[in-house]
User: Fold this.
Amino acid sequence: MPATPALTAAEARDLRAFAGTMIPASDRYAAPGADDEAIFSEIERSLGRDREDIGLALGRLSLLAGGAFADLPADRRLTVANELRAEGGAPLTALTRVILLCYYRDDRVMRSLGQEPRSPFPLGHVVEQGDWSLLDPVKKRAPFYRR
Amino acid sequence: MNEKVDVLIIGSGASGAAAAWSLADSKMRILCLEQGDWVKPTDYPSNGRDWEARLFSDFAINPNRRARETDYPINDANSPIKVVNFNGVGGSTIMYTAHYPRLKPSDFKVRSLDGVADDWPVDYDTLEPFFAENDRMMGVSGLAGDPGYPFHQPPMPPLPLGKSGQRIGKAMNKLGWHWWPSDSTVATVDYEGRGRCINLGHCTPGCAQGAKASTDITYWPAAIRAGVELRTRCRVREITLDEHGMASGAIYYDAKGEEKFQPAELVIVACNGVGTPRLMLASQSGRFPNGIANSTDLVGRNLMFHPYAYTYGYVDEEMDGNHGPTLCLWSQEFYETDAARDFVRGYTFQINRGMGSIVEAISSTAAGRLPFGADHHAVYRRLLNHRLSLSAICEDLPEAHNRVTLDPVLKDPSGIPAPRIDYTLSDNSRKMMAHGIARATEALKAAGATDISTEAPIMNGGWHLLGTARMGTDPERSVVNGWGRCHDVKNLFIVDGSIWVTSGGVNPTSTIQALSLWIADNIKRRAADGTLFD
Assistant:
């Protein structure tokens, strides 16, 4: 598979600003923003097969911003980001997806959600058996399938 | 040219594996050609921190998105439901939910009972021993005594209810509706070399510990020990005919891309309800210019999915999230035809656990529920692990215009024409989905859920590929006879979901495999008594 073309400097700047607008850092939840350096590096490495769509979305974002999105003041960025969101489409889906894919696997984010930052294998998880007596009323039903 | 085999099976998934294993005791020389690879336990996403990200790349359910070398593209632009599958040893059992209901007795008598479509040329009671054998081979967990089904005894106890199962169970009891632990091919105790499930999370994209049955770890090891040969990375281009109108073998491209001919006495096609008609339509000859065994123009027609109506909401306490297999319960309350409703036939409710953190975020962003900006964090924390959901898996009735054809432009990496899907939802399906959404909403409200939303049909929900080479006793109205042999070509068999007459309203893998075992049994019995080609 050919290497994914890297973002231009302008695209990278706008993408980082968009990621931080979409998910800003939160002191209350001790969570970094999606524009955090480590998370954004992961985003840049994960564009993969969505590179083209993401480029299209960033191009549209720039048009809506009337120039570089990253140069807008913070309150204006949120308005423009929501305008792009309202337009919808596959490029927007690709753009938001890559941000979420990288943000919600960051160790600090996982911990802030009370989740263990680890792969599912090999430890797995615990699912409680539950109260099987709940099924008693159903067990009393007569067969109701047709022959 | 390769050495001739007695039986050539094309496709190593649910049905091909079952047929191979069953036929192995005949001592015939059996070869299976599979276009994909073996999947190693270490390949599965749950080994890594990026396990959710890989659901959108190399373990995506949609082959057009996944786009592995071993996949073939599908032109699904003219269908509201997109085909999902997996190509590799085990086929789509690698990438299924392991939800394992059987068809019911009434599903085989749709015309007699409800005056629609056609009856099957085989019935539940005939298949029952093969269901039981298949349950043993795949390793099924569940609870005997479901009043929605004829009695059967799964070999392992059911999956745990969990928090979500209890919450929805209480709601169903309040409404007086049926619910029951699902039959599942997830091992709940150690079973024939498979460890019990340790809840790695949703196991649709494969199970790293091997608790979920896929045919690469159930039927195939047994079949290979019994002498069956399985060749991977072999992509079949066409089935060939001899001068007597019998199948003579298949032409395929091997792992190096070299064209090979594999001669065989008997050919069994097991490529699913899209791959099988694709291969048959591509197998053109002077005798069958429109595709092998297609004198009736029925190959590729009557494609049935199960339209899924997915309804979900959020509750005020933490549920199971992505911990544990996604499906654990079903409800058959609305399965059988009810004359008081405005549609015929019915549906199963699948009751789901929640989602992983990333999929919840993506889903809720797409639905407009999760805001951008400072409110993002607070809203997300109310959503994560608080989702409850039900899916109505609706019976799809056969319609000739829903079909698989060969795309005139799109081709796979070997240059073989890709399948094209033309499919529309019927009025009956739309009404059934609306009913399912209304009832699911009732159930979710009874469970205390709010913010209830739906997706219907689920776009990437074409898991079940059925009906495109239907069975029947009348050669003018069917492609194969009552035991899977093509009417037109007497040594050509089909064992996958293509042969289904109607779709029922349940996941089809259990019944696909039971049918495959039954067809294999017919082949063995008729080969022994000399009636196989009568």
Summary: Chain A touches chain B through 55 residues (CB under 8 Å). The first helix of chain A runs from residue 9 to 22. Chain A has seven helices and no strands.
